[in-house]
Every structure is written in structure tokens, then in C-alpha cells.
Design goal:
Chain lengths: 341, 380
């Protein structure tokens, strides 16, 4: 027990393994080819071979027993590669699900991040187009529904496999009260935050590489201070987002009855930190993709260049939960207590 | 990653907190804002008496950077006047790292006992960010050095016992190479101090040096080695020793006022407040990272630049929205009836712009990040 802000040797290996895997198997062309649905079955099959779908599940259920910190490392590599697979949602859903076909990855689990409407419809489930099993809240219960995925959905900004799903049709199991779902949503926020840090990091790399290469007025555009200062903000936001995400993972994994002493800047409450990480990482990804795209000049908005794919996903992955004001206000309730009356 | 403090550090933190409760009284805060001296001798002496300064100083005692981070973090969150302490400890650390044995024996005990402060003479009227171009001269005369010139922003010169002074000793070498750092007593004949009043309350100084004579015992870090000495100081300054959590007391003061005046239930206020709490948390994590790098044997110079850019702008954002939200009450100063946050909202709006300038402007820090982290070409 003392401060250690480096990745563990195991996590270094995990990062290397997954970054290497995605670099080889999921270069941006793979994400491009998977549009508009945003799902590549072959890539998912390969990820199964790595044991990724069940890596966070308990060993007694056939899972890998990885810590949340380990999963954060994996989620960041998913973001860096914008791999068209629903790994983040699957890993989050499995915090409550132990079915063998989900732990193996043979079937895909999705998270209904917003509760079902009065008709029992979960609207725009992030992986609704491809998930065989969806977990979420219907009424005042946490339910899990197994049904046939539509394998299509509305075309959208982030080329995500989103679709409406029924919370009532299919094989439905009531897991418990609505509050049971908190652990899934906290993990979803945490891993989504990590994947957004990955997007920001990749966008920064693309932008920096481009401005070193691209010349105008006889010099690299990256030699201009206006461009440099815009890019200099990115590693700061990325490192800050990464630290906050790992702190949230550490708190969710190891801290019970964490502190919410914001007046002394002492916060060790996992759920609060997960929401904070999501809001911060979303801003980081939006800023990084915004600036990187801009410094590409005209090529930034040419479809042929990759940065526009990161730009759209930075917004897609972060807005699918809700608008940031609503998320901030739910955080405010947790930090400051709810508004009275 | 592990974000927990060891039991030993928790005990250390709790000791600091109890000292803060006893010594950082409203009267001390008031004195700081009346005199413009951001220092509390009674607090320094207590920290010195208990061996805490020695324990926290890099390279001395236990010298755990995590403890140093914890100490300044607690002082800053409490709104304590700690600027004097931060500079003094930073210089004690540099003397310990680069000084001769004689200098260590002569200078360090006076600092870690909490008795002596240090002021820094780097910038000049014409050289701020371009500090390597300074003109103050030190010329060898027999066994002595004779120093002539002037400095700006020599904060705490009116109360400090020691002065660390950047001079030019060789006109023929490139500008970064012909510099020498001296450390000398402020009561050395030939030094004049004139106050400079500032927007952020703190009184700083202009200082003049007329035929100031010192021996080789005053050279710190070697002749013509002044730039390295200075970057060593800055690496300690940027990041760990305060200046990265200044928004925390502001949010606390603002919150008390907002609740009492029934504006804290406004969704806009709650959203902004939540966002600033996130900012403060990120600022402290970046600071903790610098401390952790130092604890692991590294020099967090670049990370310090990153921390400073983020933390200062987070503080400025908080200051901007709290004052705007408070409206007219955010204009009222200390002791005025109805002042938002008992005047802190107004004070922070004057203090926050100062912080992106001193100790290296955010532009200089962004240059550092662009060149050293992103590998972009030098832009100036």
C-alpha cells in the first residue's frame, strides 16, 4: 500500500499484447470496412482466441480473473485502434453475467445504458445490433434478456452497432432490484472512459505525425508555434484522463466506503470517480480529435484520411450514455447530495 | 496503479493537518492578504521544530517526494501562506544536490529549522521568459566576485535571509553557457530592495546590486554552470511544491456562499461545480505523478510543465465561473458585507491570472511539451 502510478509488469505485457494484436489485425482499414454497422465478426473470433471476452470474469467460472486496472489497459488499446468489436460493453455486462457462452465470447453481451421506457424498449443500446444478450433496467428491476440480435441498426455518427432492444421479448431473467445494475454501469463508464483515452492518444499520434511530415511555406507545419501549442494540450489531457481512469479502477477494485470529501479534494469513491473519468476522458477525446483533424488541414475532412473516423467515434462513444450535462448533474448529486425539495 | 498513501504517509499527513488546524488561523490568512507577504513564520518554525521540513526536503532526511507532495497539498488546500516555505525548501534541495559541503553546512540548517527564507533573483526588467539573456554581471576581482545589475520579481526579498542570484560571468560563451548562480546573504552590502505591488495581493520586489562583493563560497553549482542550477530549481518548482490545487479552497468558499444564498440548487451551478471538482482531482493526480516520478529516482521536469499548464488553467476556469455566478457579490472584497466566499471569489479572480505567468509562463511550458514530449521542432 503506497503510491505507484506505473503499470504493473503484467499490465505492460497486456498492453503490448493487445496493442500488437490490434495493430496487426485491426488497422484503421478494418474499422473502415466494418462501417456503417461497426462490427467485424472475424475480428471478434480472433479476440476470442486471446481470451479477451472472459478475461475479467472469475476463474471459477472459467474467466481470466483480471483486475479492473487490467481491463482499463485493454479498453485503452480498443480505443487506440477503434477496433469494430463490442469488447468494452461485453466486459462491462459480464460483471453480473456468468453464462459459459458469454465468458467464452461465443455469444456477445451488451449493456442497455439507459433504462427501458414504459413499453419495455431499451432505445439505442450501444451494441444492440449485435448483442445476443442485453442487461439493463426495466421498471425497478435489473433484467437480462436473451434474444436474436437484428444485425442492423440506424446509421449513426460513430458507426456504432446501436439498435433498440426489447427488455421483455426473448428469454428474460430478473436478476434483482434496479440498484444491482449500478456495478455494470460503473464498469461501463470506466471502460468507456479508458477507450476514449485510447482514442485521444491515437488522434494525438496521428496529428503529430502529420504535422511533422506536411510542409507549407517550406517548413513542416509542426514547426509553427500556434500548431505546437494546440497539440501540447493533448498529452496533458490524455495523461490526466489515464490517471483518473486508473484511479477509478483502483477505487472500484479495492476501496469500500470510499470518501467523497470534494472540499479537500479527497475522493476515493469508485462510482463517483468512474463518472468523473468518463466526463473527463470524453472531453479529452473530443478535444484531441478536434485539434488533430484541424491540423490535417483539408485532408482532415477528406474521408480517405483516418482522423475523421476517430473524430466521429470520440463523440459517438461518449454521447451514447446521455448528454454530458445530465451525466454531470448525476455526478453533482453524488458529490454534493441531491437537490432538496 | 495504487493510489493509496502508505500508513506512514497517512500519519505524516494527519500531523500536517493538525498543525494546519492550529496555525493556519483566519488571522494568519488575513495578515497574508493585508501585508502581501505569503509566508507564516510561526507555521514554518513549527514545521521546522517537528523535523518535518528536513523530512520532506528532497535529498535530505527521509526525502520522500510523496511526503513533500502531501505537505504542500495540505497547505495549499487549507489556503495557508506557503510561498516562502516552498521557495526555501526548493533552494535547500538544490544546495543539497549541487552545493559544496561547506555550503550545505552553512545554509541548509537555517532553512530546515524554518527560520530562514530565500528569495530568487532570475528575471530582469527586460528578460522574463528569455531569462538566459540576463545582463546582471559578476566579475572576478582577485579572490572576490563583484556583482552589478538589477532583478525583477524578487519576491520575499524584504524578509528573506538568503538570495539566489543568476548572473552573467562570461560574455564570450553562448547565452546559456556564460551564466553563474550565486547564493548569498541578503544583508550583504550593496543590495537595495524596492517593493512592487501586484494585482494578486502578493508584494514582490525590484532589487538592485551595486558592487556587491562575495567570495567563491557563494558560487552555487559551479562557475558558468548557472543554467543547469536554474533548471534544477525549476524541476523542483514545477509540479510538486504547491501551485497545483489553488482552486480547492475557492470551491469551498464559493460553495458555502452559494448554499447560504440559495443558488447552489441551480443546475448550471451544480454542473460547473462538478466539472471543477473533476479538474481539481486531475490536477492533484498530475501533481502526484510528478512526486511519484521523483520518488522513483527521476526528474519530473516535463511532467511538471504538464501539471502546471493544466492546474493553473483549471484554477482560472474555476475562478472565472465562480465570480460570474456570484455576480455583483463576486466583486466585493475581504471584510465587505455580502462578499461572495467572504471575499475569496474576488481575490481568486485577481490571483489566478498571476499563476500562468510566474515560475514559467504557460507558453514556455507548452513549448517544452511540444519539443520534448511531442518531438516537434524548436519554434523560436
Amino acid at each position: 500500500m503506497s503510491v505507484d502510478l506505473g503499470l504493473s509488469p503484467d499490465q505492460e505485457s497486456i498492453a503490448e499484447l493487445f496493442d500488437g494484436f490490434f495493430t496487426n489485425e485491426a488497422p484503421p482499414a478494418v474499422a473502415r470496412a466494418a462501417e456503417p454497422l461497426g462490427f467485424d465478426r472475424d475480428l471478434w473470433t480472433k479476440v476470442i482466441e486471446l481470451g479477451a471476452p472472459g478475461m475479467g470474469s472469475a476463474p471459477e467460472n472459467g474467466g481470466g480473473g483480471a483486475s479492473l486496472g487490467d481491463l482499463v489497459v485493454v479498453a485503452e488499446t480498443v480505443g487506440r485502434s477503434i477496433a469494430p468489436i463490442p469488447l468494452v460493453d461485453h466486459l462491462a455486462a459480464l460483471s453480473l453475467l456468468t453464462d459459459e457462452d458469454l465468458i467464452s465470447g461465443e455469444s456477445i453481451a451488451g449493456v442497455a445504458v439507459r433504462r427501458a421506457d414504459a413499453n419495455g424498449v431499451w432505445s439505442l443500446v450501444p451494441t444492440g445490433a449485435v448483442a445476443n444478450v442485453v442487461i439493463g433496467i426495466d421498471g425497478d428491476e435489473t433484467v437480462v434478456v436473451r434474444s436474436t440480435p437484428p444485425m442492423s441498426g440506424p446509421r449513426n455518427h460513430g458507426s456504432m452497432p446501436i439498435a433498440d432492444r426489447s427488455a421483455r421479448e426473448g428469454t428474460r431473467i430478473v436478476l434483482g432490484p434496479a440498484s444491482l445494475f449500478d456495478v455494470v454501469l460503473d464498469r461501463w463508464k470506466l471502460l468507456t472512459a479508458a477507450s476514449l483515452v485510447g482514442i485521444a492518444d491515437a488522434a494525438k499520434e496521428l496529428g503529430v505525425a502529420y504535422v511533422k511530415e506536411r510542409e507549407q511555406f517550406g517548413v513542416p507545419v509542426g514547426s509553427f508555434q500556434a500548431v505546437q501549442h494546440g497539440l501540447a494540450d493533448l498529452p496533458v489531457a490524455i495523461d490526466g484522463g489515464r490517471l483518473l481512469t486508473h484511479k477509478a479502477a483502483w477505487a472500484l477494485d479495492t476501496v469500500t466506503d470510499g470518501l467523497i470529501d470534494w472540499a479537500n479534494n479527497d475522493i476515493t469513491d469508485g462510482p463517483a470517480l468512474a463518472t468523473m473519468a468518463l466526463l473527463f476522458a470524453a472531453d479529452a477525446a473530443v478535444m484531441a480529435t478536434d485539434r488533430s483533424l484541424h491540423y490535417h488541414g483539408g485532408y482532415g475532412f477528406a474521408e480517405e484520411y483516418d482522423i475523421q473516423m476517430y473524430y466521429r467515434r470520440a463523440r459517438g462513444w461518449s454521447l451514447i450514455l446521455d448528454d454530458p450535462t445530465t451525466v454531470s448533474l448525476s455526478l453533482a448529486d453524488r458529490l454534493f447530495g441531491p437537490v432538496e425539495g | 496503479m495504487d493510489f493509496s498513501l502508505s500508513p506512514e504517509v497517512v500519519e505524516f499527513r494527519d500531523e500536517i493537518r493538525s498543525i494546519v488546524r492550529e496555525f493556519v488561523t483566519p488571522e494568519i490568512a488575513d495578515r497574508m492578504h493585508t501585508t502581501g507577504v505569503f509566508d507564516a513564520p510561526e507555521l514554518n518554525l513549527e514545521l521546522g521544530r517537528r523535523g518535518i521540513l528536513e523530512r520532506a526536503c528532497p535529498g535530505l532526511g527521509k526525502g520522500d517526494p510523496i511526503e513533500m507532495y502531501v505537505m504542500f497539498n495540505e497547505l495549499e488546500k487549507a489556503g495557508a501562506p506557503y510561498d516562502g516555505l516552498a521557495v526555501a525548501l526548493m533552494i535547500a534541495a538544490v544546495v543539497n544536490k549541487l552545493g559544496t559541503d561547506e555550503q550545505k553546512e552553512r545554509i541548509i540548517p537555517s532553512i530546515i529549522s524554518g527560520e530562514a527564507l530565500v528569495c530568487m533573483g532570475y528575471s530582469e526588467a527586460d528578460f522574463g521568459s528569455d531569462v538566459a539573456s540576463i545582463k546582471t554581471r559578476a566579475v572576478k576581482d582577485g579572490d572576490e566576485w563583484v556583482i552589478n545589475g538589477s532583478k525583477m520579481w524578487t519576491t520575499l526579498a524584504q524578509v528573506a535571509e538568503w538570495l539566489i542570484l543568476l548572473t552573467r560571468t562570461d560574455l564570450d560563451l553562448p547565452k546559456h553557457k556564460g551564466l553563474t548562480m550565486f547564493i548569498l546573504p541578503m544583508n550583504t552590502p550593496g543590495i537595495t530592495v524596492e517593493p512592487v505591488h501586484t494585482l494578486g495581493t502578493e508584494v514582490t520586489n525590484a532589487t538592485w546590486y551595486d558592487d556587491v562583493r562575495v567570495g567563491d563560497e557563494a558560487v552555487l553549482g559551479g562557475e558558468n554552470n548557472g543554467w543547469r542550477t536554474m533548471t534544477t530549481v525549476l524541476a523542483f518548482e514545477r509540479g510538486v511544491m504547491g501551485g497545483t490545487n489553488a482552486g480547492v479552497p475557492l470551491l469551498r468558499h464559493f460553495h458555502e456562499w452559494a448554499v447560504a444564498n440559495g443558488v447552489f440548487d441551480e443546475p448550471t451551478t451544480r454542473e460547473r461545480m462538478a466539472r471543477s471538482v473533476i479538474d481539481m482531482q486531475v490536477a492533484t493526480l498530475l501533481t502526484m505523478r510528478s512526486a511519484w516520478i521523483a520518488a522513483s529516482g527521476g526528474m519530473p521536469g516535463l511532467e511538471g510543465s504538464m501539471t502546471k499548464v493544466f492546474a493553473v488553467e483549471a484554477y482560472q476556469r474555476a475562478s472565472r465561473w465562480t465570480q460570474a455566478t456570484a455576480g455583483p457579490a463576486g466583486l466585493l472584497q475581504f471584510h465587505e458585507e455580502g462578499a461572495a466566499g467572504e471575499g475569496f471569489v474576488e481575490y481568486d479572480a485577481r490571483h489566478s491570472p498571476v499563476m500562468s505567468i510566474y515560475g514559467g509562463t504557460t507558453e514556455i511550458n507548452r513549448n517544452n511539451i511540444a519539443e520534448r514530449h511531442l518531438g516537434l521542432p524548436k519554434s523560436r
